[in-house]
Amino acid sequence: MKRDNGSHTKNPIYGKIRNELIAAKTNLRDRLFRPAQRITPQALSLRKAKRFHPLPDVNLVGLGIGEKVTSNKRTGEMCVKVLVAKKFPKGKIKSADLIPTEIDGIPTDIEGVGYPTKFAISQQQRHRPVPGGVSISLDLNAVDFRFAGTLGIVVVDKKDSQRLYALSNNHVLADENRTKPGAGVVQPGTLDGGKNSDQIARLSRFVPLKFGNRRNWMDAAIAEFDRPIDVDRSILEIGTPSGAAKPSLGLSVRKSGRTTGLTEGIVRVVNFDVFDVEYDQGSVRVDDVIVIEGIDDSFSKPGDSGSAIVDPKGRVVALLFAGSEKVTFAIPIQRILRHLGVRITT
């Protein structure tokens, strides 16, 4: 029987991960990570600026067990995989900082992957200037709890083009009729870290909601921006709306919302009267709405309330206000604009 006593024993990737591989990974991790734990102000500054440097405390991302890649080809061999922010030529790295080609007889492989950071949906971040499609809420002076909904679109007063408003739902901007005009609105919403100092607008007016399954035609409210100069009239990831239009059966639509971001769907039902929508203060009925199904997944989830529904021509057709696990309900936009005396800015 032929034995290979060399240091490059093959470790097929589809086999069980051997103890030797785990021990080698642990050994190398402890050698590399201990210096990296003593991260310096210089290293922190470089990482924050996304500038690369071969020092381990700057460059090391982590270690694991994976498949060795040589000349951009997968070899089918298991190795200790070392991920770094940037893979530098050997001549750029001090000899003491070089990662060995093998550890305890197990090959290593180095791959540059960039600096790691938490993933956070853009719609939940702070935006200045403020576009549509992003997280908003009342401030903590208006309500004593943290929440977030969506700023649907920027609209302008029909009688005074200098007055700009954030359009969303009553239950987002007016707390189901319980908040008085003048209440502060912050972006991002308080659930996403917004503070009173992040105020962008004040509640201007809203359409009162009726509970107990009495008929409603809309769930809508507007808040006037404090500084029109800090407003972006576009919708995040969609662009500037081209106007308003009536929704139709089978229409392809998109929306940008606080929770699910940019999603696509199809209008499956029109002239729909929805009953028993659960609100804090009771059951709500809204007549003559549309029903949307998502194409790949849910079109919306909690926190997307207030999102503008946009057709392929960039026209806003509806305002999202509720949904279930499978469908989304939205109010035709032209009805809302007429009632509130505003128009879409283009």
Automatic annotation (TrEMBL):
Coiled-coil ranges (or none): none
Domain of life, source organism: Bacteria
UniProt-listed Gene3D superfamilies: Trypsin-like serine proteases
Domain (Peptidase S1) ranges: 165-334
GO MF assignments: serine-type endopeptidase activity
Biological process according to GO: proteolysis
Protein name as it appears in the record: Peptidase S1 domain-containing protein
